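pasting for ref
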Amino acid sequence: DGVTTAMWFVEDHRLFTYWKNFAPFYDIFAVIQKEPFLSKLKEIGQENALYLPLAAQPDFHKEVPVSSVDERKWGADLSFMGAGYPNRRLAFREFIHHDFKIFGTEWDGDHVLAPSVQMAGRRVSSEECVKIFNATKINLNLHSSVGTDELVTGGDFINPRTFEVAACGAFQLVDNRTLLAEAFREGELATFTSLDDLQAKIDHYLKHPDERKAIAAKGQKRVLAEHTYVHRMQALIDFTAERIADWPRQAVTDTVLAGLPQEIVKDIGALLDKLGLPADVSFPDLVWAIRQQSGVLSDLDTSILFLDEWRKTYVKKSD
């Protein structure tokens, strides 16, 4: 159809290898790791690979008031929100002597961690995650690994939690990743390189709330300046415009309001406002938006859908 396509592959390419089957078929392939992944993509014919790390959504991942009820339910000296990967299961046994809460799934069957697992290990909603981040003194952020030889791997990709916790203005201890220094400056995150290092820093930062607050504020400032989904989509758009000739192409279609009698323009304009569509929307896009609605169709909705069917039946035949 001549539509430029892009895929944002947000998995570890070593663990999830299905990218090999379809990466060459996209015009743009964005990934959360650099080498050797970028070279591997080139080897299978994907010339337009882009490093595009994850991000936060600042109108959602933000500071929220923490009530006394929220404090009791979500708050802790130390917490972790995420799935029970093997490296985390073993690593977190070292910290059960703390006021430690674990939220998320796949923690069943571990009697040592069971007292720390909250809400019977059910899935935590995105809204609840924000409450956890805000109510916790130290958000523990240990990246996942299916191996247990190294519990703190120091790998390359940066998980979304890193950006989301920071966007909330909350404090985190995150394992030091190889690409982390490109995303954050010195003093904007607190990192650790081993379990011994993590234990020492937990003890230190629990005693120094002012340091936690200062680091969290710097991390939040960096995320809002460089690491939102608006920034990521702009990077994707810029890269696509650079790599794909004559992109973006302006669609050659008549706008809905073009040539309509004045007495109808007002009604159509009100419908466009209701659907959140611009005045220069094309007729096919208007039809699509009407079909996404639920409930009873208005007379105007019905007329437009009837006109669409008429056009498809008769206009195409006459062409």
